[in-house]
UniProtKB/TrEMBL annotation:
Primary role: Involved in the degradation of asparagine-linked glycoproteins. Hydrolyze of N-acetyl-beta-D-glucosamine (1-4)N-acetylglucosamine chitobiose core from the reducing end of the bond, it requires prior cleavage by glycosylasparaginase.
Listed transmembrane segments: none
Entry's family note: Belongs to the glycosyl hydrolase 18 family.
Domain GH18, residue spans: 24-372
Domain of life of the organism encoding this protein: Eukaryota
CDD domains reported for this sequence: GH18_chitobiase
Any Pfam family hit: Glyco_hydro_18
Protein's name in the database: Di-N-acetylchitobiase
Compartments (UniProt record): Lysosome
GO cellular component, one term: extracellular space
GO molecular-function term, one example from the UniProt record: chitinase activity
Length: 372
């Protein structure tokens, strides 16, 4: 799928002072819509039944996203007006990333000031909301615990008031069971924003058992995470399933005959071992490596995920765990069963969007696997 540049007007020079103007609190770029059709600068107001939520981390790959299905693009990269115009032309929301050290927003005044800055920035860039990506440690009953819930409430109120139709979402770990010491008021937060993006990946961030490599998003554990969110009283329509478009490459201290890869100890927030012992790899890199690897693609029927082994130049054996259309489709069947709001991935830019025919097939299959 290609994209022409005609959604963007030539000459963005009238906005070149935007940064400066924002910093002094004036949005004089108002009316400087960068799109060829000024209507494309209007916020998106429609909601669609099935959310397909994409994290954009930079580059031009967005031109090849499956725009027939994408509903929201979260900007985890520098602002690109062409992407804004294009997303709007497809009826997709384009939202900011929001992150702030919680100690800085405990005081109500500093919290409102931060929220106002975000709303101003979103308006100046013709955006449709914000994704709160606050993955910090919070202890129950602490000042930060209450400040975080208040932040979500006040951010949602401000965005909904100032940008009609806008969307405020919050990223949570794969389970509400205080993963990585994120002891948040999950039910409160879910009620107070539009929906939670559940990051069903990095599920080995705290390995409490033996230090062996495992799947990034093992099937049972992933589904149990959603069941927990629902059991504590969160409406399934407030949950978007996040799947990984990347894997983990572990160097094995020892690989047993039954494929158990022992990994070095890397403590994380109270656990002795963690996926921090591994290295994150994009799906496109995995696809280039798997066929020529020592083992080829193997399938773990307990974790319901593919993996493979290879040897590096030093002769060390590695085990790589990842997700592919087969493992993702299994999880996707639960979106309907549990009544979730949709799906999304971290992140949209890890696939090979080149002209290579095999890559094109693999990339199309990853997008297709998202749909129930
Ligand atoms: C969570 O937040 C909701 C909404 O603000 C509030 O009613 C509830 O008391 C909070 N629960 C806890 C345990 O803090
Ligand atoms: C790897 O093998 C699979 C299965 O045989 C095949 O479909 C795919 O095209 C191969 N990938 C490459 C890059 O050759
Ligand atoms: C996964 O869950 C199913 C259903 O609860 C159970 O029958 C199965 O034993 C579980 N598998 C693992 C590996 O825990």
């Amino acid at each position: 799928m290609g994209v022409s540049a005609d959604t963007v007007r030539m000459g963005l020079s009238d906005c070149s002072l935007l940064g400066l103007l924002l910093s002094i609190g004036v949005s004089a770029c108002w009316g400087g819509c960068p799109c060829s059709d000024p209507a494309l600068c209007q916020p998106i107001r429609d909601t669609r039944d099935f959310e397909v939520y994409v994290f954009y981390v930079g580059g031009e790959n967005w031109k090849n996203y499956d725009w027939a299905h994408v509903t929201t693009v979260a900007l985890f990269a520098p602002y690109d007006p062409e992407l804004m115009c294009f997303a709007h032309s497809k009826g997709a929301r384009f939202v900011l990333k929001g992150d702030i050290p919680l100690k800085d927003i405990v005081a109500p005044d500093s919290r409102s000031a931060w929220i106002e800055q975000q709303v101003t920035l979103a308006k100046a860039q013709y955006m449709d909301g914000i994704n709160l990506d606050i993955e910090q440690t919070v202890l129950p009953g602490s000042e930060e615990y209450y400040a975080l819930t208040a932040l979500v409430k006040e951010t949602t109120e401000a965005f909904h008031r100032e940008i009609p139709g806008s969307q405020v979402t919050f990223d949570v770990a794969w389970s509400p069971a205080w993963i990585d010491l994120r002891c948040y008021n999950y039910t409160g937060i879910a009620d107070l924003c539009d929906f939670l993006f559940v990051m069903s990946y990095d599920e080995q961030s705290q390995i409490w058992t033996e230090c062996i490599a495992g799947a990034n998003a093992p099937f049972n554990q992933t589904i149990q995470g959603y069941e927990k969110f629902i059991n504590i009283g969160i409406d399934p329509k407030k949950l978007v399933m996040g799947v990984p478009w990347y894997g983990y490459d572990y160097s094995c201290l020892h690989l047993t005959e039954d494929n158990q890869c022992k990994i070095e100890k890397k403590p994380f927030r109270g656990a002795e071992c963690s996926d921090a012992a591994g290295r994150q790899v994009p799906y496109r890199t995995i696809m280039k490596q798997v066929n020529a690897s020592l083992s080829g693609r193997l399938w773990d029927d307990v974790q319901k995920a593919p993996f493979y082994h290879y040897k590096d130049e030093k002769g060390d054996t590695h085990q790589v765990w990842y997700d592919d259309p087969e493992s993702i489709s299994l999880k996707v069947t639960y979106i309907k069963k549990l009544g979730l709001r949709g799906i999304g991935m971290w992140n949209g830019d890890t696939l090979d969007y080149s002209n290579d025919p095999i890559a094109q097939q693999q990339t199309a299959a990853m997008w297709k696997a998202l749909l129930p």
